[in-house]
Amino acid sequence: MEKTLTIKYKEYPSVDALDAADAELVRQAIAATEGAYAPYSGFRVGAAVRLADGCVVRGSNQENAAYPSGLCAERTAIFAASAQRPDMRDYEALAIAGRNADGEMCEASPCGACRQALLEYEQHQGHPLRVLCLMAGGAVREVGSVADLVPFSFAL
Ligand code: THU
Q1: Cβ-based neighbours of 154, under 8 Å, separated by 6 or more
Q2: pLDDT band at 155 (very low <50, low <70, confident <90, very high)
Q3: pLDDT tens for each residue of 65-87
């Protein structure tokens, strides 16, 4: 029997169309691209996660000459948040922004490994963690839950 999955998401024409807290989160993700260490790919990614108490933790991609040793911006941010605030493993939203080697904004979307890592925190907290992705033209895509990005996910 053939079945179909559908994913609901929202698109906002610009960062300014978001509510104030989410707009600020996306701006924090853009600012976080400055912290990227990406000498190999030239692709600078920034992420910002907002905790339930309003605190924002930022991350950026960190590369290494031994390529697999690097880490994406999203996991840098969520792991830092979890490590620094174990008392507040309650995440409302995570924003992502990416720039290419010429400094132009590119579509940002979490890779498969980051989706799996984010999913675990979402499942741990028991309510959705929204994901805000800044697109090349300045629009923002909002997915209401990490689970929507990882159909048929792995679990232990
Ligand atoms: N990267 C991220 O930081 N996040 C993603 O979701 C996709 C990829 C980084 C990893 C690497 O440093 C560079 O972008 C190129 O893949």
Answers
A1: 116
A2: confident
A3: 999 999 999 999 999 999 999 99
Residue 15, domain member (yes or no) = no
The verdict on residue 17 lying in a domain is no
Substitution candidate for ligand 1 out of 72, 94, 109 with most atoms within 8 A of CB: 72
Atom of ligand 1 at shortest range from CA of 44: 14
Pocket of ligand 1 (CB under 6 A): 38, 41, 43, 45, 61, 63, 70, 72-74, 110-111, 114
Q: Catalytic site residue 74? A: yes
Q: Which structural domain, as residue segments, surrounds residue 110?
A: 24-149
CATH number of the domain where residue 32 is located: 3.40.140.10
- pLDDT (tens digit per residue) in 3-50: 999 999 999 999 999 999 999 999 999 999 999 999 999 999 999 999
Whether 5 maps to a domain, the answer reads no
Q: How many domains does the chain have?
A: 1
From ligand 1's centre to the CA of 21, what distance in Å? 25
- Would you say the pTM of this structure is higher than 0.85? yes
pLDDT at residue number 35: 98
In a domain, 52, yes or no: yes
SS (H, E, C) 67-88: HHHCECHHHHHHHHHHHHCHHH
